[in-house]
C-alpha cells in the first residue's frame, strides 16, 4: 500500500528553523523602520544650529540698567589709596630695617593694581541689572562673566551701603541677601536716589511674592 506524499506547504519545519510564511501574510507587509530618515532628520536639526548657538546662554540683550559712570572714579580712588598704603609700608620697612625684600613683595602687588586700574572702566561698564517678571538678573565681568538671577520671592534682606568715597560722589550699593548664601549679590555704583527707589520696589515685590498675592 502506497502512502500519499505530504503537500510541500504542509511539510513540518526541522528543529531550529522557521516555517516559511505564505505569500501575502501580514508580516510581509509590516512597515520597516526607516533608519536613514531618522539619521537625516538628526543631521538637519544639528545643521540648523551654528557652533555659536550650541551651549550659548539665552539672555536678553536689551533693557539692561548700567551703574553710574562716577563709580569708575570711586574705583580708581580706591586703587590709588591701595598703592599709597603699599608704598608707605615699603618705605617704612626700608627706613627702620634697611631691608630690600619688601620691594620684591610690593613690586608685583603694585603692578597687579596698575593693571586693575587700566581695566577699571571696562569692568564698571560690564556691571548691570535687569528687572524681569520673576527675578532680578545681575551681570558683571569682562573675561570671566557672571550672571546671577535672584528670585523676588527668595529675597530676605535688601541692604543699602554707602562708603565714604562713594558717599562723596552720591553713590550707594545694594546688597541682596537670599535664602541661599551662594546667590548673594552686591550691586554697586547706583545713584543714592535710584538705590532707595530700587530697594523700596524690590521689598514690595518680594513681600507680594512671599504672601502669594
TrEMBL record:
Answer whether the UniProt record assigns the keyword Transmembrane to this protein: yes
Q: Which keywords does this Swiss-Prot/TrEMBL entry list?
A: Membrane, Transmembrane, Transmembrane helix
Residue segments, region Disordered:
1-36
Identify the Pfam families for this entry.
bPH_2
Q: Where is the composition biased (Basic and acidic residues)?
A: 1-14
Is the Membrane keyword given for this protein? yes
Q: Where are the transmembrane segments?
A: 71-95, 101-119
Domain annotation YdbS-like PH: ranges: 125-202
Question: PANTHER family this protein is in?
Answer: TRANSMEMBRANE PROTEIN-RELATED, UPF0699 TRANSMEMBRANE PROTEIN YDBS
The name this protein goes by in its record? YdbS-like PH domain-containing protein
